[in-house]
UniProtKB/TrEMBL annotation:
Alphabetized UniProt keyword annotations: DNA recombination, DNA-binding
Taxonomy, superkingdom: Bacteria
InterPro entries per record: DNA_brk_join_enz, Integrase-like_cat_sf, Integrase_catalytic, Integrase_recombinase_N, Tyrosine_recombinase_XerCD
Species per Swiss-Prot/TrEMBL record: Dactylosporangium salmoneum
PANTHER family: INTEGRASE_RECOMBINASE PROTEIN MJ0367-RELATED, PHAGE INTEGRASE-RELATED
Family: Belongs to the 'phage' integrase family.
Pfam family, one: Phage_integrase
Keyword flag DNA-binding: yes
Protein name: Tyr recombinase domain-containing protein
């Protein structure tokens, strides 16, 4: 028996013990040749993911298609991914809030992991062959956002209510975000059918497909209803809109903060944005009512590292009580004896008109 035949026999014996036939190997090799290229697979993934992922990762997927468009997914190595991540980090557009490209590199790795995770699910390669999982993602640095002081928040609201082409809209936006601590996506997705005027609740639909009822003050509910009536929002269209009936977009927020920053330079210097209002309200709620209520107020209902959080979850009535103390207004779901300091709420006027 030749050495070559002995090797073949040994290989066949090993395959038999593994329960694998030569035909299985042939099919696997054939399937591997069918693994798509980046140019072919990026559009597939982009169509399959949610709007949030598509918005966050689309620029990085475009970069992959441009750089490795004609290469198959199983041809790229972890070292090549690291090199491209370093190139993206080095060439990131310089902005005042930039952190040396760390966020760009982190998002690039996240975008690649998202793409390969779907490729594994589609059967183009195994989890062990996923090169993106073998590349370390840069550690996210702590956020520079923090709570805005009451006096500073009052300045922001003063500028918003006295400047611009639509102060009514801008003050409504600021009050909505300060009362509810909602994200921009939650505000933009708000529909007239999401308002429970009797119980002063709004239905927030935010990232991660989370949905929750959030208490609002009677004053804010009244102005939301007036806004819907005056700007002719139909039940299936967004609540927040311009005077001509067009729904607003994220650009309205950008214009708002750019305008406020021209009057208040510290807003531009510190890169104040709508998300700072979320920090402001949740910090106040945590200090006054504790962590469990702040967690529920924020809509952070899962993923807590503490098992105890499952047993001490705050109720909607407790969130309403915190809101009542925040705004100084009674709420239908809050205990009638609720009273407390009015801090953040004092700095969030909604323009009253005769």
């Amino acid at each position: 028996m030749s050495a070559a035949q002995a090797d073949i026999d040994a290989a066949l014996l090993l395959l038999d013990r593994l329960g694998v036939s030569p035909a299985d190997l042939h099919r696997a090799a054939r399937d591997r040749r069918q693994t798509p290229t980046f140019a072919e697979y990026v559009p597939v993934v982009a169509d399959a993911v949610g709007n949030g992922s598509r918005r966050a990762y689309s620029s990085y997927w475009k970069r992959l298609a441009e750089t490795w468009g004609d290469r198959r997914l199983d041809e790229v190595t972890p070292s090549e991914i690291e090199r491209l991540a370093q190139q993206i980090k080095a060439n990131v557009v310089s902005r005042r809030n930039a952190r040396g490209g760390r966020s760009a590199a982190e998002l690039f790795i996240a975008a690649l992991r998202c793409l390969y995770k779907r490729a594994v699910a589609d059967g183009y390669l195994t989890a062990a062959d996923d090169p993106a999982q073998k590349v370390e993602k840069p550690r996210r640095l702590p956020s520079t956002r923090r709570a805005i002081a009451d006096a500073r928040l009052a300045e922001i609201n003063q500028v918003a209510s006295t400047t611009g082409d639509d102060p009514d809209l801008d003050t409504l936006l600021l009050r909505l975000h300060t009362e509810t601590a909602c994200r921009r996506g939650g505000a933009l997705a708000l529909l007239p059918t999401d308002l429970d005027s009797e119980q002063c609740l709004i239905l927030l639909k935010e990232k991660g497909e989370t949905v929750r009822w959030q208490p609002v003050s009677p004053t804010l509910m009244r102005h939301l209803l007036r806004h819907i009536g005056e700007r002719q929002a139909s039940p299936s269209t967004p609540v927040l809109r311009y005077r001509d009936g067009r729904p607003i977009s994220r650009r309205r927020y950008d214009h708002l903060w750019e305008r406020v920053g021209r009057v208040l330079p510290w807003v531009t210097t510190q890169q104040i944005s709508t998300h700072w209002l979320r920090h402001t309200t949740l910090t106040w709620v945590e200090r006054q009512f504790g962590y469990a209520v702040a967690q529920a107020y924020a809509g952070h209902m899962g993923g807590d590292v503490s098992v105890t959080a499952t047993y001490v979850r705050a109720t909607l009535h407790e969130v309403a009580a915190a809101l009542a103390a925040l705004t100084g207004e009674a709420h239908p779901l809050a205990p009638s004896t609720t009273s407390g300091p009015v801090a953040v709420g004092q700095a969030v006027p909604v323009r009253e008109r005769c």
